[in-house]
Amino acid sequence: MRTFWALIRRDVMLGVRASGGAALAAAFFALIVVLVPFGLGPETGTLRAVAPGIFWIAALLATLLGLERMLQPDAEDGTLDLLRLSPLPLELAALAKIAAHWLTSGFIISLLAPALAPLLSLATSAIPILALSLLLGTPGLSAIGAVGAALGTSVQRGGMVLAILVLPLNIPFLIFGASAVAAAQNGDNPAQALIFLTACSLLALVVGPIAAAAALRLNEE
After folding, report:
1. pLDDT tens digits for range 54-82
2. Which letter does DSSP use for residue 86 in this model?
3. Alpha carbons 92 and 107: distance in angstroms, whole number
């Protein structure tokens, strides 16, 4: 397990230090939220109605930014070959990559979202649910992204390919995450949407590392 934690620590440090890492994901997320009022106008009712969907669309797109760097640099510099030869199973290596990606994207976005909520006139009662939904859902986005990243290790500059592979699988997270925030904003109980969101995220965290490891073995052959 020491190798597992070392891999997470290494990838988090690279994500924080490298250009286009954690700072870019947070800045991209914030930029989308800030630009929406300029496009839709300052009407509070309009902004409040679209806020749940906008926050989740921004989170989904921001998590896509780092997917190409999740495994592609390791495939190019030989680190991935060393991981294949190490005692650490590929499934656990993929899980470590998922954890590092989430810590440098989804976790930061979850902390940033409540601070940006007033820009879209999100109801105060819905702000905790917004943060909770992102904390529950973004690990699943990273897990699904890892599968796409593993499939794309054999493709140079495969950012567009990754987006095409990953985006359709992220639709349930978008639906349940936005629904939970909208329910809280309208005074309804968001528990059902949060339960479905958590189930989707847990399923992705179980299947994602296995599928990513299988894709890496397939590319090796």
Report:
1. 999 999 999 888 787 788 777 777 777 78
2. S
3. 20
Residue type, 211: A
DSSP at 99: H
**Residues 177, 181, 182, 184: is their CA dihedral positive or negative?**
positive
DSSP state of 42: S
Phi/psi at 42 (nearest 5 deg)? Answer: -90, 5
pLDDT for 91-128, tens place per residue? 998 999 999 999 999 999 999 999 999 999 899 999 99
Number of H helices, E strands in the chain: 11, 0
> CA-CA distance, 18 to 12, in Å (whole number)?
10
Angle value at C-alpha 24, between 18 and 30, nearest 5 degrees: 160
pLDDT digit string, tens, across residues 146-195:
988 888 776 655 556 677 778 889 999 999 999 999 999 998 999 999 99
For 165, the enclosing helix (H) or strand (E) is: helix 159-166
Nearest to 55 by CA among 129, 3, 159: 129
